Amino acid sequence: MHHPSSLFGYPKEDTVAGIVVFLVAVPLCLGIAVACGVPPVSGLIAGIVGGIVVPLISRSALSVTGPAAGLTAIVLVEVERLGGVKPFMAAVVLAGVLQFSLGVLRCGRFSALVPSSVIKGMLAAIGITIVWRQLPVAFGVSGSIGDVIQQMHLGAVLLALFSLAVLYGWKHTPLARVKVLSPALIAVVASSVIARVLADVPGLALAPSQFVDVPLGGLSELYSELPLPDFSVVGRVDTWVAGITLAIVASIETLLSLQAVDRLDPLKRHSPPDRELLAQGTANAVSGFFGGLPVTAVIVRSGANVAAGARERLSAMVHGTLLLVSVVFAGQLLNSIPLACLAAVLIQVGLNLCRPALFTTQVSLGPTQLLPFALTITAVLALDLLRGVIVGTLVGVAFVLYENARKAVVAQRDAQGVWRIRFRRDGTFVSKPHIVSALDEVDDGEHVEIDGNNEYIDHDVKEVLSTFIQDASHRNIRVTVVGIDLSNAQPTGGH
Fold it and tell me: N or C: which terminal CB in the chain sees fewer CB atoms within 10 Å?
């Protein structure tokens, strides 16, 4: 069956889905910006750009782009390291350019090289970071978790608890069947109303600093308040480090989300990854230029898009357009949203990323999956996200090399006393220690058959075998080699 690929192929379905995704995206855009320590408007700008720019370039029918919780840890660190929001926005623009270059170079396929245990560890560490950072906000505290006892605000705590009750209890209510409603939206609206009621209650009324702060006064006022990039820092090494980190992590998160959304697509379409990198790179460059957060394809919004019946990219564009309208014309409503409610929304997102079932699954898979997972979490929390992913990937690669090397050959003595050493996998330099150990089991005067049929044997291993054969002539060992060409391998003086 032919599926229309036109942007306007399903206007009715996509318009409805776009409205649903907009209602899901508003609290997430605001909450992620607050979690990153940047102006809330930066989260909305990112959502607008991700919704309008990406669908014009991407060929992913159902994915939705916006600010991602997965980049929160990077934004927090890099804003402080670069000396403010405006220098960071220059790094976002740079990340967009680098991402676009990755698309041009057709690097999308290489995301599959990152081990799944490392990706799960990265997401779990991000979840832990989000929860840890948002707990003080949920308690109404402007500082760290250590200030909760002295500064805890009862009104903020009540709103956060109410919001969490809505978020986790929503699926058990009849309203959960109404697609146009999302639990995050209901929590935001209800918390805003409750906060207004509590405004006259001593001890429970929230301070102005405990609400969202979006600039009012139309487009001119909005533009004047945007944290536009400071390009004077582009020549600094730390700016490039931030840009490279954002580009790599955003690309990995986008491509993983893309794979997940393609599996959800009822029409079973495939989204070209390199084209997606071009789209995401363009969006990040534009978002950073206008003071927006870095963006990725986001599975939460994309999943809501699919569930709402979307069919084409128009739904993402509707969501982005509605975000733009809300920023320009509904600033007063946005400013009535309590930060404690947004903290609750993000705590739920964080807990979903580091849910206990994820840890128990990794334990059940054994040390080759558990250790890279655990070390990635530890390294991300102790260092930063990029270095944590690098550490986890190196550990994962080390396990793969060890397993391949350990199982490259099988050696056993048959009933006739002949040692049969057979290659079950490619023989490479990492296999040498195990091959040498197998050859060391052969005693003087025995017969050895070495079988390398249908396997690749590299030059290092051939030299080891040639050295063994040379030594065997002095030890009365008879050697038969099958399927391995040793004509160009020279003995190295000892195996």
Answer: N
Greatest Cα pair distance, the chain, in angstroms, is 99
**Do residues 325 and 411 both lie within one domain?**
no
pLDDT, tens only, 417-438: 899 988 887 788 888 888 888 8
Closest CA to 159 of 223, 205, 119, 120: 205
What are the pLDDT digits (tens) for 10-51? Answer: 888 889 888 878 887 888 898 899 888 899 999 999 999 999
Give the residue from 12, 116, 118, 16 showing the smallest Cα distance to 388: 118
Residue type, 11: P
CB atoms within 10 A of CB 363: 13
Rounded to two decimals, the pTM is 0.73
pLDDT in tens, 180-239: 677 888 888 899 999 999 998 998 999 998 988 887 766 777 788 889 999 999 999 999
Structural domain containing residue 442: 407-482
Residue whose C-alpha is closest to residue 160's, from 148, 176, 147: 148
Comparing CA positions, the residue from 112, 110, 82, 106 lying closest to residue 94 is 82
Q: What is the CATH number of the domain that holds 422?
A: 3.30.750.24
Tracing tokens 């491509």 back to the chain, one arrives at: 255
Query: How far, in Å, CA of 304 to CA of 28, rounded?
Result: 13
User: Is 51 a member of any domain?
Assistant: yes
Please state the domain count of the chain: 2
Residues in the chain: 495
Note whether 39 and 225 are within 8 A (CB). yes
**Position 112 confidence tier, pLDDT thresholds 50, 70, 90:** low
Q: Are residues 39 and 163 in the same domain?
A: yes
Can you list the alpha helix ranges (DSSP code H) found in 201-355?
218-225, 237-264, 273-289, 299-307, 314-329, 331-334, 339-353
**Residue pair 377/124 in contact by the 8 Å Cβ criterion:** yes
Could you say which of 341, 365, 389 is where a domain stops? 365
Identify whether residues 419 and 356 lie together within a single domain: no
Q: How far apart are CA 156 and CA 140, in angstroms?
A: 5
445 with 340, same domain: the answer is: no
The 10s digit of each residue's pLDDT in 373-408 is: 999 899 888 887 667 878 888 888 887 777 777 777
Look at residues 196, 489, 138, 491 and name the one whose alpha carbon lies nearest to residue 332. Answer: 196
Query: If you average pLDDT over each of 142-146, 330-334, 408-412, 464-468, which comes out highest?
Result: 464-468
